[in-house]
Structure prediction request, 556 residues.
Amino acid sequence: MNTIAASSEKPFSNGAVLASYLLEAHFEFLRVLRTPAFAVPTLLFPPMFYLLFGLLLNRGNHDAAQYLFATYSVFGVMAPGLFGFGVGVAVERERGWLSLKRVAPMPPGAYLLAKMAMAALFAGIIYAALAAMAAALGGVRLALAQWLLLGAIAAFGVLPFCALGLVIGSRANAAAAPAIVNFIYLPMAFLSGLWIPLSMLPGVLSQIAPLWPAYHLAELALGVIGQGSSSGSVPWHILALVAFTAACFAIARRRLARAE
Amino acid sequence: MTSEVVARLEQAGKRYGQVQALDRVDLEVRRGEVLAVLGPNGAGKTTAISLLLGLLQPDAGRATLFGEAPNALAARRRIGAMLQTAGVPETLTVGELITLFRSYYPWPRTVADTVELAGVGDLLRCRYGRLSGGQQRRVQFALALAGRAEILFLDEPTTGLDVEGRAALWKTIRALVGEGCAIVLTTHYLEEAEALADRVNVLMRGRIVAEGSVAQIRARVAQRRIGCVSRLAREAIAAWPEVRSVACEGGRLEIVTDAAEAVVRRLLAEDAGLGELEVRRAGLAEAFVEITREAA
Prediction:
């Protein structure tokens, strides 16, 4: 039997593709776990920010504590997607690893799904840390369903920021990527009212806020605790986030296909 | 003895801004052969490989793998590659990397076979970042082998390898060709092409300036080298009309000429005590220098 001829005819079973996806995610997890210089700051930064500006600067106001917990959760889950994709993809693209994996027949979605799974895991850990701090230090009291719903919003809320990170990572060079990510991350957090409610900021910022995906995610989170603004409904915010995510993935896909 | 063509460039062109990196290049790779793509830096070797790998799209002409577009997944499942820059994650171990790459292919080699062929059996548990440059290169070779590819693209594969590492890699390449694998090799080391290649394509400024077997390429150069020990003065021989140049090393004369027979006849006539006579045809290195000079 000619094994070479056989190899070209053997179909790739669904099980083999699934195994490939799982391996990719498994090794992405190991890679990040073994790079504490990336993992630790990414995990610590949002809780530290929340501690300093969300908890210590606000004492005693119950509504404000709940508001800040919801918006800092959004702030926290933005980071893993933006940094994991923005910086991670830029580095792997520039060093040639992405090229080698594309030449090797990596299943097209495996790379992105592995990184998304990591971002979602990070988002879950950050959310859990914020929730523990909110309950223990901030006096935030919510129903179980509200805690869980906010957690679900955190886990799925990473996707738009993965997509935005991917747009950055598909173009930026590795050395510039962290600065570019911060340049988008921190202003967007401010402009979306994550640190200070939009109602306390100049009116023009409220008017342009629907441009930012973080605003829509924050509105969804605030809706859970009954503090959403009256403008816009839940389906509208979800639709905005889905459209933003799809647009970013489409742009990134075109750029990556042309890359190198 | 024409066998099946597995990879092909047809009138392929690629331009980067003002620079025409490849210009109407035709190239064929057949099953079970080693094709060496040679050329000075910037000649377009890596661009040609990138077109065949589907990493770049040609502006003009066509690139195909097994008759399909190179970026088709089905075509990619039949190739393996060792690129110049690999950027392998430093925190994964050699065993993990091989496991990951095996999972991409429908019919991979066993881990044992892969590490045996690439000579990385003692490194399986080591993290990639802790390996020496030569060991990393061998791991990259292992990743190229893991899928039991029908074509291997090796871009400067022995850069950074020591003498033993290079010999081992050559041996593996010969074994793979024996199994029917096609190999596309770009290299700076002409002795590597001479030792391995069935056919050679010489690229110069984006165009193919010579194509053929190693013997055919060598034959394009009429030059031969005559070595001997003689009492004749170097300057005197250098003045003979057929002689291109004469060097003297350790009392031994090295004469370069296009008319070896005439020069040998005259040497023997003028120096009855002449000894250690040796006549050699130009190697690939001389041919390469000659061809690139002509094309420049």
Notes: The interface with chain B takes residues 3-4, 6-8, 10-12, 16, 19-20, 23-24, 27, 30-31, 34-35, 92, 94-100, 102-108, 260 of chain A (CB under 8 Å). Residues 1-9 of chain A have pLDDT under 50 and may be disordered. Chain A is about 80% helix and 0% strand. Residues 203 and 244 of chain A are 24 Å apart (CA to CA).
